[in-house]
Design goal:
Elements lengths: L4 H26 L14 E2 L4 H8 L6 H13 L2 H11 L3 H21 L5 E2 H25 L1
Helix pairs in contact: 1-4, 3-6, 4-6, 5-6
Length: 147
């Protein structure tokens, strides 16, 4: 099976877009949204799965729609592109993609905690992983339709 130039160009373009998107995402996670160094003393974290998610649903009327959307929908949506691009670039299967995503997200959340650029929230890892899996599902659907 030969790889034609169009496939190689497409993969390079998707790889470049993925890297640029990763840089933007890292900016959002560590600098954007008003994050500055030491905003508080100590560490903020949630290690109980579904605690933050349940809080947003149980007290939805206490949050602005924008705050709610950014924290629930945004945490899913922002990782959908990785679920689309990583399987395309590396032909990775869903189990490996899930494990890789959880490991990378764990490291990013831990860095946010240690650098005082946010908090470590297990629910962010869950929501972000759902985003990757939604993207992978979309990729799978697209691939079936095209082939």
């Amino acid at each position: 099976m030969s790889i034609n130039r169009t496939d190689v160009r497409a993969k390079k373009l998707v790889g470049l877009i993925t890297i640029l998107y990763l840089i933007l995402l890292l900016y959002w996670m560590f600098i954007g949204f008003g994050r500055s160094g030491t905003q508080w003393s100590g560490y903020r974290y949630n290690l109980v799965p579904m605690r933050t998610i349940r809080l947003y649903f149980d007290h939805a009327d206490s949050f602005t729609p924008t705050h709610w959307l950014v924290n629930i929908v945004g945490n899913v949506a922002v990782f959908v592109p990785f679920g689309l691009s990583i399987p395309y670039l590396y032909r990775i299967r869903i189990v490996r993609l899930t494990l890789l995503s959880v490991a990378v997200l764990f490291i990013l959340e831990l860095l946010q905690l240690l650098l005082h650029r946010g908090s470590f929230d297990i629910d962010d890892i869950l929501l972000n992983t759902v985003g990757v899996l939604v993207g992978a599902g979309l990729y799978s659907l697209i691939r079936r339709r095209v082939s």
